[in-house]
Amino acid sequence: MATWDDVRRLALALPETAEGTSYGNLAWKVRGTTFVWNRPVHKGDAEPILGVHVADEGVKAALIADDPDVYFTIPHFDGYPSVLVRLERIGVDELEEAITEAWLLRAPKRLAAAFSAQAGSSTSPTRITPGDTTSA
């Protein structure tokens, strides 16, 4: 089970990330571009919800299909590459992967490439499909 402290720690560990707000809600941004954010609790929500930028609608659909207890969406996000995460149902390792992928997608290309080179990985997001055990 992950917490907002985990989100904060993982997001702020990434280069040039700042904590701020977006539409009045807590958000983490790389050079001013939001990559993960706190979706405010709405009527019917039983737990904290994290919004995460993903590569595209296909990745969003795959995440939701693979683990609908953790990942979901609402009509507001139709056509937008983001997924909602039930924070209390995701493990910290999976959360770290989601946050890092979101950061890589939203960071400027040179910054993402430098981070990936330093981390010893590719220069672009891995776009891992849920259940894929062949990707690093």
SSE layout and pairing:
Layout: H1 4-12, E1 17-22, E2 25-30, E3 33-39, E4 49-53, H2 57-66, E5 71-72, E6 82-86, H3 92-106, H4 109-119
Antiparallel strand pairs: 1-2, 2-3, 3-4, 4-6, 5-6
Would you write up a description of this structure?
Helices cover 33% and strands 23% of the residues. With 136 residues, it is α+β, with helices and mostly antiparallel strands. Strands 1-2-3-4-6-5 form a 6-stranded antiparallel beta sheet. The chain is globular and about 40 Å long. 31% of the residues are buried. The model is unreliable at 126-136 (pLDDT under 50).
Features:
136 residues; alpha+beta; 6-stranded antiparallel β-sheet
How would you summarize this macromolecular structure in one to three sentences?
This protein has 136 residues and is of the alpha+beta class. It is 33% helix and 23% strand. The chain has four helices and six strands.
Q: Helix/strand-derived class?
A: alpha+beta
Uncertain segments of ≥5 residues (pLDDT<50)?
Answer: 126-136
How much of the sequence is in beta strands?
Answer: 15-25%
Largest sheet: 6 strands, antiparallel
